[in-house]
Write a structure and sequence with these properties.
The protein is α/β, with parallel strands linked by helices. The protein is built from three helices and three strands; from the N terminus they run βαβαβα. The protein has one domain: Methylesterase CheB, C-terminal domain (Rossmann fold, 3-Layer(aba) Sandwich). The protein starts with a strand and ends in a 19-residue tail after the last helix. This is protein-glutamate methylesterase.
């Protein structure tokens, strides 16, 4: 199973260290779009590392994790609309 890190809203920068560690070990990093975060510092610091694969709004993160962990070439699925069955509503 591939490693996928998801960085969400927060006020500190500790998620940035986690991003680096995940990328260093071949994982993928998804970050909540800072514009949608209650506290944008954590996502912004993560993005600043240059180790982030995708920046998405919260309603797309679960489907992205699903795509990256279950489908070969799952990252390509993120460029099309997320199917309704993959959304958590």
């Amino acid at each position: 199973m591939p490693t996928v890190a998801v960085i969400l809203t927060g006020r500190l920068a500790d998620g940035a260290n986690g991003c680096r560690a995940v990328k260093r070990n071949g994982g993928r990093v998804l970050v909540q779009d800072p514009a949608t975060a209650e506290a944008s510092s954590m996502p912004a610091h993560a993005i600043a590392t240059g180790c982030v694969d995708f920046v998405l709004p919260p309603d797309r993160l679960a489907a992205a994790v699903l795509a990256l962990t279950t489908a070969p070439g799952g990252a390509e699925l993120l460029t099309v609309p997320v199917p309704p069955w993959a959304c958590l509503n």
